[in-house]
Hints:
The chain has helices at about 5-10, 15-30, 40-55, 60-65, 90-95, 130-135, 280-285, 345-355, 365-370, and strands spanning about 120-125, 135-145, 160-165, 170-180, 180-190, 200, 210-225, 230-235, 250-255, 265, 270-275, 285-290, 295-300, 310, 320, 320-325, 330-335. The protein folds into 4 domains: about 5-100, DnaJ domain (Helix Hairpins, Orthogonal Bundle); about 120-255, Heat shock protein DnaJ, cysteine-rich domain (Chaperone, DNAj Protein, Chain A, Ribbon); about 265-335, Urease metallochaperone UreE, N-terminal domain (HSP40/DNAj peptide-binding domain), CATH 2.60.260; about 340-374, no CATH class. It is elongated. The protein has 9 helices and 17 strands. The protein is of the alpha+beta class and about 375 residues long. A 4-stranded mixed sheet has the order 10-11-17-14.
Amino acid sequence: MPGDYYETLGVPRDADKEEIKRAYRRLARKYHPDVNKEAGAEERFKEINRAYEILSEPETRSRYDKFGEAGVAGGAGVGAEYGDFGGFTDIFETIFGGFGNMGAGGATRRRSGPTRGDDLRLDFKLKFKEAVFGGEKEIRIRHLETCQTCQGSGAKSGTGSKTCTTCSGAGQVRRATRTPFGTFAQVSTCPTCNGTGEVIEEKCEVCGGVGRKQETKKLKITIPPGVDNNNRLRVASEGDAGLKGGPPGDLYVYITVEADEEFKRDGFDIKSDLTVSYLQAILGSTLKVTTVDGPEDLVLPAGTQPNTVLTLQSKGVPKLGSPTLRGDHLFTIKVSIPTRINAEERELLEKLAKMKGDGQGKGGLEGFFNLFQK
């Protein structure tokens, strides 16, 4: 009585079709009687072949899962005979890959009609403010365009193409080789027509029979507000032209944003440092600050401490797809402590230090200034 077919192939009961195929190929190579001369190899190979025939077909696998061997008894035979090499062709096509749908000349016919062109990539660098506000930019690209003289056919005006005599129009050639395991076919692209199945009678003098020409082109693209590093813009139909008049591919523009000396981006917020004097920090002030929109007023409250973050709302980066919604501009306050002061300033500061009880005489200034170095 046969054993469990899943155990025979060494796969779980929920294995998919590809997993079953891989297991079968591995075991078939190992136990084929023309390779393995050990006792029992032939019987083992029969079991493997039987298991694969049952489990590789959804209908027979379903019956086997429900009813076991009784559900498939008489439904499938052992399969190919392997007494001679010629009868084992199907098995080896399963193991090593078949030859596909054969056309003229025994090779797979390649598509010789129009094909879509390749997509292209362009790396494009923007300044910080250009990325924030977007706008129209001019770029230059080199891509393949359809030859206007031959309209992409590659043939000289008044001539055409004919069926390739090397591959009989198949686009591929097949070479058979006999091995100890049987006859194998090697399929490769036809060297005469490069897989098209056709050869041009007379080549176009402008494109040399290719049907496309390398051209440099200027384009204007629209940068949306708020783009950031590694954002990708798609420019439709500006890639390489397709073969034989096929549609062009697309152009993909990858954005890189240059670092700015003053501004840093954090998501949709902009961050910068703002240095103020210790007197401004103590007394408060209204300051003119620089934003991506230009000068703006920022209120510095009295008694502002070092590293306080003050916010100007909606002065950050526009959100992609919603340019009216913007992040904020965040200012981190840095307090500047003077390293040298004149005699009058010192006298006033020493009086202030005495009033605040921060020390006596000249030495009291050290404690006073330390307040702004936290």
